Fold:
Amino acid sequence: MATILKAENIIKYFTTPIKFKALDNISFEIQESEFVTIMGKSGCGKSTLLYILSTMDTDYEGKIYFDQQLITGLKQNDLAKLRNGSIGFIFQFHYLLPEFTALKNIMIPAMKLGSYSYEEIEHRAYEKLKLLGVEEQALKPASKLSGGQQQRIAIARALINDPKIIMCDEPTGNLDSKNTAIVLETFKQISKEFNQTIIAVTHDADFAKASDRTIEMADGKIISHGLKQ
Amino acid sequence: MNTLKKYFKLSVDYEIALTHISTKKTQTFIAALAVAIGIAAFTFLNSLVLGFNRDSDETLFKSIPHIRLFVDDDLSMPLIKNDSNKYTAVITNPKITNSSKKLSNPQYLVNQIKSKDYVENAASWMNINLFYNNGVAQLNGSSSGVNIIEANALFDIQTTVVEGNINELLSTSNGIIIGVGIAENLNVRLNDNISVVSSMGVIKVMKVVGIFKTSNSFVDKTKSYMNLSSAQQLMAQGPDYLTDIYIKVKSPYDAPKYTEDLKLLSGYDAESWQIANESALSQSKTRTVMMRSISFIILLVAAFTIYNIINMTVKQKMHDIAILKAQGFGGPSVVKIFLSEALIIGFMGTIAGMILGAILVNILSKVYIGGENEYFPIQFEPTVMIASLIVGMTVTAIAGYFPARHAAKVDPITIFRS
Structure:
């Protein structure tokens, strides 16, 4: 199985309020269709690592390979294109655009990518909504939905461009157990059935247990790469 | 609306911009209203100053030509030029020579000038100073010896004539057309005779064939027109004596460009109206600068409103900007979203402002003010409209660009972490 994401000697400093080494020489590989969780105490640098992997933070030392291609040092606009087509994001907060319907929120990244016609994008968005079981909410404004529904719409949005990797920062942090279970099932399904890779930062031990592998971090270092289950 | 949607769905950036402004109708309306007022003021004030300047120039052109061709005064020079140090230098006071002011072969010259493609019309002219007498009453004044057909083509004299007819001058060789002030002061009527005395001492009895009234009472009290031959007789000169050629060009504002060409053609001096009337010109410049400053200040306020509203939108939408950037909207896309919001608001405001300005112009153009024009000298100016559109869009583009650039620089990580 091919390596989808490889990090080599990642070092990250924070300069404010004082110079502080947030990530200390981190190296690891993630395979295609793996469902990986990253765990650790608050401030151990797991979110920092995720944002570097996500290409949004470019201020670091070391090298990152995405799909065998070095992405460290690419221009901001090229990284934006890469994120648009190949990376999906799910956060603790849904970050849906409140003025748009649920459907439109899902469609926007695909409209930006522009690989499909408007009608095809609409059709694909409905498929993702069905996958998450929220197709009835399609035409409601995003701001009128419940928290669980909003997070499921956000997941559908992350999936719309069939990204190779889906990066999640505490995806179930705000959800009740019922919704957490739905999200977990969806993650398992997309990694196994659609061969998409999932990297999720989490505090939730049950959630981590359900993943293929858990990377544990402490004080900016990886203390366990986890065993492939 | 559907076709609009179809067009805008091509670019998701525009769709987001449109959604933002359509969900905040009040803010959009206020910003557009500010632009509309600014542009209306800009359109109105600029139409006003343009109409006013054109009107004052037209008034000016009723009495002075675009270009005047004349023989300039010569200054006397020492007969022996002191080129070397061999001779003792002779110092003399420069004086105006009493050389002739006569333009030679004037009719040929007039025809030559008329054949130039930038010249609309040209007329032989002779200005003389004289006294008007009727019995013991005597008035000081000036008269123009003209070919009345040519002169009328230049200055539209007929429109100012209140009694008689200018064409009478053609059939009456000793005819004179006098200002209404002269007629009153000398107590003469149409077809009465008056005697005139020139500075050369020539006395001539002339018949009043016309009385004119301009908007300038000084002109009415001093000015008269007579045939060229009468003027030549009063100056004790022959029929080829002429002091000026008055020229009307097709584009008066380019007059200075043509003077050089006319100097070369004739060998005499040529003076454009701009040179001859610097004070009138500086007045119109002052008016233009004044009105433009006022309208730009009003526009600045409008620009600031746009800036404020886009800035507020950016501040409110930090989360949206962060997620859009995470999803692959680059800096240029974000700039496009907020800049198009500013431009859409600006465009609506500009169009509304142009309409409002045009209505104001229309209302004012119907206000009666009396005088020669009767109505306020303002009209619909297509050039001002085009300028308003360009200025309106430029100002909103600048006002929108700064907050848009600020939005493009938002760091999504700081938003997600907070």
